[in-house]
Known about the structure:
Helix content is 37%, strand content 17%. It is an alpha/beta fold. It has two domains: 220 residues, 3-Layer(aba) Sandwich (Rossmann fold); 97 residues, no CATH class. Strands 1-9-8-7-6-4-5-3-2 form a nine-stranded mixed sheet, sandwiched between helices. α1 links the parallel β4 and β5. α2 crosses α3. The longest helix has 20 residues.
Amino acid sequence: MVTAGQPPRTYPDIEPFRSGHLDVGTGHRLYFECCGTPGAKPALVLHGGPGSGVSAKHRRLFDPAAYEIVLFDQRGCGRSRPWAAVDLAALAANTTHHLIADIEKLRTHLGLDAWLVFGGSWGTTLALAYAQAHPDRVSEMVLAGVAMTRRAEIDWLYGHVGFLLPEAFARFRAGAPEGEPGIGLVEAYAKRLLSPDPAIHDLAARNWCAWELAVIEAEAEAETGSRWSNPDFRRCFARIVTHYFRHDAWLDDNALIDNAKCLAGIPGILIHSRLDLATPLTTAWTLAHAWPDSELVLLDRGLHSASEGRMADAIVAATDRFAHRS
């Protein structure tokens, strides 16, 4: 375990040299893009949420001269289709296991043998599940804001952390008063978000995202983007998050810890803020002790977001360390 010091800044903005949609079957077409240097060290970006979609900021976490950076929008969100904001078919055939298969289809489509896998927040859950299913396809891992989507983590984010944010949590609970804190609130909001009545599902999406944003804004340096004010983004995000979390991400509760032995020989850097309200440090701490080839980097201050502030700088330090590792 180390404590982050003065890591480098993120890299300048870049544009993709390749993009398109990949038909992965079951009615889903995934948007993907490749940035950086063709033929350089491959790196895969797994975004958070679930349902957040990729951002141009994610491209800046890698040295574009050293990496071929692959980004894609997971099923139902971003530029992938169908889109959960307007089509509930986006939630069909949309599970963690489908996403793992999608990653393999994308890797094969791009002709890559193996890649560094980066994930932030929910993306760390997906990264771990993918790496444990296909360890021979993962060269290194960088995980930021570590989450394993265990029931205790869901109960924390939609229940216990409310003790630290009582006003915001009271408003969140009032949006679905029939739901008990924790998984009960997730279930109650999921039902409202699936309502055919726009007045019901749009209000539920607004309330859900207001709570998500309140947790992030509680961190001193949090920056919020205009996407949270976009009703389409809110609806898409909230529908996919509740869809995944109400099903415990289709993972046995301790599976990612129990199967950490599958990661033997894969070097990993886990980056976490000590006071991250969204994902408590105990998750990263537990994983670090179950995965001997990992290193836990703790930030005394910083954000949960992988694309902002000290967290982003620490990610760049990690990707730079792996840039020329063969």
